[in-house]
């Protein structure tokens, strides 16, 4: 059901050599570029018509219009199961509490008397938020994308989610309800690469439908074609990340509950047959107990054949045996998991030492599922080892830091000779001349 990798017999290698020993899903965005390139070009030249055509081809339904009518949003919220609405409202409340504390404030530094640099944080003007459809329904992704954008002060928010044949070409009603709950009224029935291209290039207004204005930034997870479109169009738009298959790593010792560990591994395998589930442990007894629990729990799970079983059996999933927790820490840092659970005797201390993870879940009572919905943290996180250089979605993702430089004549005069010296050292004499021109072409001496 799940393979083993035994790293106990020799000293662990460093860096890339260690990463090469660890399981990882194959996710070749570069290869998908040639598939999405003609899609994006078609949307660039033909606008909404191309988005609708590709929706019919890939999603099996031809939508009459891309923009979801306001009455459909209102109806979805009115008909939402009260328990689901209450859960979404609590998810939003907790996410707002966390993300509100991420807001940045303007700060001015006095470098010298008369010379200041102010860092001002400005939200991007317009954002396209992508919410996947397909194997599962993700209203939680609406929350995780919209809340930080709103808390950052973004004024223009548009959501795209694939059209669903069973709902007459509209996105899933729970997704529409989540949008309505958050006050987002610009929603499009568009998925895949064509949705990303729609956000990047915009679509023209027609007689019976307003167009989609181009956005500055696209965020949200998606399949390999969404990731490839993001890569292709990066530069024209900003992107949050090229999200790959979801993944969990659990660092555990003999004190961990095997039933909890197995349940958490299965919870990620449930997403997709390419999802990664990795246990790193120094306890062979725990490894055996988890294997037994996996068999027992998978036997009574849903989505086994199409998702869970292939995910657990795939090359991206494994139980990794290590000599001790110090080696375990090296392994999880090399892996750089999207979600990392620490289930050890001193979980908080170990969690504090982790350097590479999208989000860290400490102890037996903070499973990844909590973070997916109601911890208050964001679940849009770096995958594929990108946690060594990238962060999850946050308010910061929607802000730009702008430096405002304000110097008086005396403050410039005091440093002018250094500026001219450095300009001449770089063989950029005009840079120095721009300073000299302000002082009658004679560089002031420093006081």
Any chance you could write out the topology, listing elements then pairs?
Blueprint: E1 3-6, H1 15-19, H2 29-46, H3 48-59, H4 70-78, H5 82-100, E2 107-112, E3 115-123, E4 126-130, H6 139-152, E5 156-161, H7 173-181, E6 187-189, H8 192-201, E7 217-219, H9 224-233, E8 238-239, E9 247-252, H10 258-269, E10 276-281, H11 284-298, H12 304-313, E11 318-321, H13 325-335, E12 337-343, H14 347-353, E13 357-362, H15 368-373, E14 399-407, H16 409-425, H17 429-436
Parallel strand pairs: 1-11, 4-5, 4-7, 5-6, 7-8, 9-10, 9-12, 10-11, 12-13
Antiparallel strand pairs: 2-3, 3-14
Fill in the keyword field for this structure.
14 strands; alpha/beta; 6-stranded parallel beta sheet; single chain
Explain the overall architecture.
- Helix content is about 45%, strand content about 15%.
- By secondary structure, the protein is of the alpha/beta class.
- It has a 6-stranded parallel sheet, with helices on both faces. Strands 6-5-4-7-8 form a 5-stranded parallel sheet, sandwiched between helices. It has a 3-stranded antiparallel sheet with strand order 2-3-14.
- Strand 4, helix 6 and strand 5 form a beta-alpha-beta unit.
- Helix 2 packs across helix 9 (about 225-235).
- The mean pLDDT is about 95.
Brief characterization of the structure:
The protein is of the alpha/beta class. Helices cover 43% and strands 17% of the residues. Helix 3 packs antiparallel against helix 8 and helix 10 crosses helix 11.
């Amino acid at each position: 059901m799940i393979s083993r990798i035994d790293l106990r017999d020799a000293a662990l290698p460093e860096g890339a050599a260690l990463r090469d020993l660890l399981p990882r899903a194959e996710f070749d965005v570069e290869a998908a570029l040639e598939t999405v390139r003609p899609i994006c070009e078609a949307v660039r030249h033909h606008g909404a018509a191309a988005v609708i055509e590709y929706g019919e081809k890939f999603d099996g339904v031809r939508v009459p219009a891309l923009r979801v009518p306001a009455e459909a949003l209102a109806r979805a919220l009115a008909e939402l199961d009260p328990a689901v609405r209450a859960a979404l409202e609590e998810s939003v409340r907790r996410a707002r509490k966390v993300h509100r504390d991420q807001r940045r404030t303007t700060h001015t530094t006095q470098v010298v008397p008369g010379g200041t640099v102010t860092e001002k944080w400005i939200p991007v003007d317009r954002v396209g938020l992508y919410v996947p459809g397909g194997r599962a329904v993700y209203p939680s992704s609406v929350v995780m994308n919209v809340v930080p954008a709103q808390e950052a002060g973004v004024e223009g928010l548009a959501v795209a989610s694939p059209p669903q044949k069973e709902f007459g070409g509209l996105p899933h009603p729970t997704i529409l309800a989540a949008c309505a709950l958050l006050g987002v009224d610009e929603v499009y029935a568009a998925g895949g690469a064509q949705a990303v291209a729609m956000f990047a290039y915009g679509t023209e207004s027609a007689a019976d439908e307003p167009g989609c204005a181009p956005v500055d930034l696209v965020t949200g997870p998606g399949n390999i074609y969404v990731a490839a479109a993001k890569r292709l169009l990066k530069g024209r738009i900003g992107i949050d990340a090229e999200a790959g298959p979801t993944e969990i790593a659990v660092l555990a010792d003999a004190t961990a509950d095997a039933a909890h560990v197995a349940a958490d591994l299965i919870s990620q395998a449930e997403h997709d047959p390419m999802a990664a589930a990795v246990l790193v442990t120094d306890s062979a007894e725990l490894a055996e107990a988890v294997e037994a629990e996996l068999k027992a729990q998978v036997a009574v799970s849903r989505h086994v054949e199409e998702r869970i079983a292939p995910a657990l059996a795939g090359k991206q999933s494994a139980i990794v045996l290590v000599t001790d927790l110090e080696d375990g820490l090296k392994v999880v840092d090399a892996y750089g998991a999207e979600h990392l659970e620490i289930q050890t005797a001193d979980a908080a201390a170990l969690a504090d030492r982790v350097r590479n993870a999208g989000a860290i879940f400490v102890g037996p009572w903070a499973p990844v599922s909590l973070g997916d919905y109601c911890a208050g943290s964001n679940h849009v996180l770096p995958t594929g080892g990108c946690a060594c250089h990238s962060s999850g979605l946050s308010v910061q993702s929607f802000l730009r830091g702008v430096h405002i430089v304000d110097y008086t004549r005396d403050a410039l005069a005091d440093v002018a000779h250094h500026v001219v010296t450095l300009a001449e050292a770089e063989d950029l004499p005009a840079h120095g001349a721009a300073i000299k021109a302000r002082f009658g072409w004679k560089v002031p001496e420093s006081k």
